[in-house]
User: Which sequence fits this backbone?
């Protein structure tokens, strides 16, 4: 990987006048380019300058390019996440300053992203017209230290299967093109699932391994406050698991699936990959639960844990279940259910009662901002440390489970509430989760919004 150093160059800086106010006054040049600019007589002085510049570069705050689909108020993920990168966030009972600098923004649906325009103007952050310009800062090579992709909202179509066709892969592949042309790469954060398409998601993951950059993202819920405040130990002998939560659409389902994977990949001998995925909807959901005693026992344990009346979950609207079989014989299911936040229940060998862990209680009208505090914390930590907070394979498997769940009830354009069981030998990802607890602890955030650089 070719090192870069910073030198003053007034002529080229003039070409970047549109971003001069938001970036450093220097421009990036490779050592080879610099040698072409000076004679051998100045080589000693140049080398001395270069060493000092490299040391300064190593100590500076990571510069982040934020690439988003839509940035509006009050409910877009771009607002919830990027605000924290600029203004800091609540973590372990206290406000924590950000350790990164947002230096460029790209907004796919710019005309309707009035809040994004207002925030960037107030913060003196340039909005570029293309993805490439945002990550090169208007130049020819990669010029940032990290990339944040938040493509969760906006006016985009939904296909017949109910998959929201958000431009995550479209943005990501343009970043990869710059990485390859620049012959270097930087960490990427991708909010929620990688793509609605397994093939696109696998390509995204494979590129991170091929080019050697850290990749993270996923749901904010696995890192939200837990009750009780526990993380499953590494190599916990999990037999079967369920997650109960909102599964009204693809996006909501992903939150539940990512919660499932965050617990299940702690099982003995680690993750072994997914054998099959199936979706069942409507009244057949409860017939499946009755036929599978492990699932009905775990669901009953959740009901009694919350002191809910018998049959409570069966009275809910739009019942559905996402059934996951793993290569090592472990079984799991995600069931629709309200009133319990996002709750994991696991049958563990040697334990009489299931282990139940819930993520609940968003605070006040600004809950959407504070719900992703830990998400932003680990995003920033990755940008600083260049290390993934958890295995990127988890994000890929969560993406694949959701994709094939949405596909299960459709066959040659025909819909069935009892979806087909889809064999997934290509989802054979194996890894051993060894990270420590990632979830929020301490005092809950205050009932106030984040600063955006203006009063309202």
Assistant:
């Amino acid at each position: 990987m070719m090192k870069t150093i910073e030198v003053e160059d007034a002529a080229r800086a003039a070409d970047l006048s549109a971003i001069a106010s938001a970036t450093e006054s220097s421009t990036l040049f490779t050592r080879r380019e610099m040698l072409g600019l000076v004679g051998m007589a100045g080589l000693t002085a140049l080398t001395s300058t270069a060493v000092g510049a490299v040391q300064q570069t190593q100590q500076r705050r990571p510069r982040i390019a934020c690439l988003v689909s839509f940035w509006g108020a009050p409910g877009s993920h771009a607002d919830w996440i990027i605000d924290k990168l600029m203004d800091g966030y609540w973590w372990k009972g206290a406000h924590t300053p950000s350790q990164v600098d947002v230096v460029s923004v790209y907004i796919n649906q710019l005309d309707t992203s009035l809040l994004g325009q207002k925030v960037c103007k107030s913060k003196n952050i340039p909005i570029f017209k293309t993805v490439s310009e945002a990550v090169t800062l208007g130049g020819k090579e990669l010029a940032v230290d990290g990339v944040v992709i938040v493509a969760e909202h906006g006016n985009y179509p939904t296909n017949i299967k109910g998959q929201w066709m958000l431009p995550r892969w479209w943005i990501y592949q343009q970043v990869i093109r710059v990485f390859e042309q620049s012959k270097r790469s930087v960490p990427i954060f991708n909010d929620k699932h990688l793509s609605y398409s397994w093939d696109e998601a696998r390509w995204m993951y494979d590129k991170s391994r091929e080019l050697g950059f850290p990749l993270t993202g996923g749901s904010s819920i696995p890192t939200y406050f837990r009750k009780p405040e526990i993380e499953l130990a590494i190599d916990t002998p999990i037999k079967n698991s369920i997650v109960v939560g909102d599964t009204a659409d693809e996006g909501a389902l992903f939150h539940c699936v990512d919660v499932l994977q965050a617990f299940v990949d702690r099982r003995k001998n680690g993750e072994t990959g997914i054998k099959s995925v199936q979706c069942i909807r409507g009244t057949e959901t409860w017939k499946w639960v009755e036929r599978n005693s492990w699932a009905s026992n775990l669901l009953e344990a959740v009901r009694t844990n919350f002191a809910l009346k018998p049959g409570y979950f069966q009275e809910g609207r739009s019942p559905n279940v996402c059934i996951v079989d793993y290569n090592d014989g472990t079984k799991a299911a995600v069931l629709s259910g309200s009133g319990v936040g996002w709750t994991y229940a696991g049958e563990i060998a040697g334990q009489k009662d299931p282990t139940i862990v819930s993520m609940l209680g968003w605070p006040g009208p600004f809950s959407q901002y504070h719900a992703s505090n830990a998400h932003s914390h680990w995003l920033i930590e990755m940008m600083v440390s260049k290390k993934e907070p958890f295995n990127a394979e988890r994000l890929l498997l969560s993406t694949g489970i959701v994709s094939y769940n949405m596909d299960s009830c459709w066959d040659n354009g025909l819909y069935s509430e009892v979806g087909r069981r889809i064999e997934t030998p290509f989802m054979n990802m194996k890894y051993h989760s060894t990270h420590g607890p990632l979830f929020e602890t301490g005092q809950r955030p205050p009932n106030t919004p984040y600063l955006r650089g203006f009063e309202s």
